[in-house]
Amino acid sequence: MHPITHNTSLLNIYFAYRIGLGVLLLVLFVVAVNRQVLGALYPTLFFWTCLSWTLLSTLSLLLFPAAKLVHSFHRITSFLVVDVLAILLLIHASGGVESGFGYLLLTIVAIGSLLNQSKTAMLFAAMVSLLTMAQTIYLLETLNLGSKSIFSAGILGALLFITAYVFQMLTQKIRVSAEEAAAQTEYAEHLQQLAHAIVTRMRTGILVLDADDRIELMNTAAQQLLELPRGDYTQDLPLAKVPQLQAILQNEDPTKAARVHRLASGQEVRFSRAQIELGNNTRSVIFLEDYRDIAQQAQQLKLASLGRLTASIAHEIRNPLGAISHAAQLLNESEDLTEQDQRLSQIIHQHSNRVNQIVENTLALSRRKDPQVLQLDLQVWLPNFIDEYTTHKTADIQLTLGERPLPVRIDTTNLQQILVNLLDNGLRYSQQATGCTGLLLVGDVNCQTDTVYLEIIDYGPGIEDALVSQVFEPFYTTEDLGTGLGLYICKELCEINQASLHYKRTADGKSCFRIDFPHYLRMI
Questions:
Q1: Residues with Cβ < 8 Å from 76, sequence gap 6 or more?
Q2: pLDDT interval class at 381 (50, 70, 90)
Q3: Residue 119 lies in a domain
Q4: Is the pLDDT at 194 greater than 60, yes or no?
Q5: How many angstroms separate the Cα of 155 from the Cα of each of 129, 151, 158?
Q6: Domain check: are 378 and 360 in the same one?
Q7: 97 near 91, Cβ under 8 Å?
Q8: Considering 193, 340, 444, 452, which has the largest number of Cβ atoms within 10 A of its Cβ?
Q9: Are residues 212 and 163 in the same domain?
Q10: Using an 8 Å Cβ cutoff, are 25 and 43 in contact?
Q11: Same domain, yes or no: 36 and 156
């Protein structure tokens, strides 16, 4: 037999009731109030029963707090049995059930019905009724009392059963309601945990600000996008503690639904804001999206359009271009050409090759397949790449890597093409400025976002601030023989792999191209 419900508050109230009732009866007996009822037959028995019951109730409360007792069915039943015996002794000392003390048994039966199962509660009520009837019969045989006591004992027994049944029905309803409430609470907690897990792991950064612009919620994606150290940012954090977000809000344009902001690291995020009403309170919900995802989708559409366009014009360009190049070569072989005409023929051939290279680069970009992403450690991959790159080149490439592993997820073919283009550019400009073909590669982990970055630092003059926004545009070049597609292709390849490529100056003013890789646990 096990209790179906254990209510600590109910036990505390009942224990207090036991002590209070015992003290009250004891005081009333001592001051000799209504001695014709209180201990009318056996005053000494009444006094010692009250005193012992009161002391036992107090001691049990001290030794067995309700919080510990609530899970012990046998101890609760033992206390109820002791209480029944104490009340029966008081009834016996006061002259039987007609003294009115029998009605105190109703409280004990009610408590037993609330704490026990239905069969146990009815068995307990039957036991109390039998004990009451036995006590009444004993008094009848001992003192020759009238049959009226038997009738009163019968009425009390019936009341005990009615009380047990009524409170058991009440307990049943309370239990069903409690189970439904517990199920609803468990389901609500499940939904809350599920919502929290979704918000925490979703790739869109989410922040919630109260009316005083204090942060109530910030998920992991928002922490990464804002380049914040790992931690809990849900404890009523002032906006000033997140300078990146504060800068975005200060530059917010209310007329635009969404806007792209560039952070200090060069990372671009798309910012949007919404208002929600929670009763009388208003909350601002801020959405931050990694612009690389949006750029990647746009890139796919752009490449699809570019592929269709280049496929349609490649044939039209290549045929006349090949004819022009071939004619220039034949013309250059003629013995009747003057030196000036030979120079003009070489210019035709040279620029034909340049146009052909532009067509080849454009076709290669438009036919690009989805990246075959692999996880690799730049600590191992970069030294092997540098060794292979410098096999047929005279170049002084210094490689500086952090102590931690540098895990990234990227298409190695794309990464190799990106680095070849950037290294070729860097070595060329370093040689023009210093006469030496050298540069510096720095790889490490951003401690704030836990993402890997790679910097290609050359010793050239760098790019003027006014031209930085144009260097990644297609066909922009400062070289006479350049196609203007090298950096554009590098940036496109980075965006396809959800990395970002941008130009900056180092702390000592050197020219630097930086690649920020996505987190290696992030699926592309």
A1: 3, 11, 69, 115
A2: very high
A3: yes
A4: yes
A5: 10, 6, 5
A6: no
A7: yes
A8: 452
A9: no
A10: no
A11: yes
Among 291, 316, 338, identify where a domain stops. 291
Query: Domain count of the chain?
Result: 4
First to last CA, the chain: 58
Whole-number mean pLDDT of the chain?
77
Please give the Cα distance from 70 to 12 (Å, whole number). Answer: 10
Q: 462: left (phi > 0), else alpha (psi -120 to 50), else beta? A: left
Residue showing tokens 């952070």? 263
pLDDT, position 233 = 59
Q: What is the mean pLDDT of residues 319-348?
A: 77
Residue after which a domain boundary falls, among 185, 220, 253: 185
Q: Name the pLDDT band for 231 (thresholds 50, 70, 90).
A: low
Q: Are residues 19 and 141 in the same domain?
A: yes
Q: Are residues 298 and 276 in the same domain?
A: no
Phi/psi for 189 (5° steps) reads: -65, -40
| DSSP code, position 456 | E
**Each residue of 391-407: b (16+ CB within 10 Å) or e?**
eeeebebeeebeeeebb
Residue 274 covered by a domain: yes
Q: Per-residue pLDDT for 411 more than 80? A: yes
Residues 54 and 22 sit within 8 Å (Cβ to Cβ): yes
Whether 384 is covered by a domain: the verdict is: yes
Task: Report pTM.
Answer: 0.44
Q: Write out pLDDT tens, residues 446-472.
A: 877 778 999 999 888 888 877 777 777
How does pLDDT run across 110-152, given as a tens digit for each residue?
887 777 666 677 888 888 888 888 888 877 777 765 566 777 7
Q: What is the pLDDT of residue 6?
A: 46
Average pLDDT over residues 326-340: 76
Categorize the per-residue pLDDT at 524 as very low, low, confident or very high, splitting at 50, 70 and 90. Answer: very low
> Could you tell me if 90 and 212 lie in one domain?
no
Measured between alpha carbons, how far is residue 92 from residues 35, 37, 134 in Å?
14, 11, 11
Residue range(s) defining the domain that contains residue 402: 374-516
Tokens found for residue 25: 């009866």
Q: SS3 letters for 221-290?
A: HHHHHCCCCCCCCCCCEEHHHCHHHHHHHHCCCCCCCEEEEECCCCCEEEEEEEEEEECCEEEEEEEEEE
CATH code of the domain covering residue 247: 3.30.450.20
Asked if the structure places residue 218 within a domain, the reply is: yes
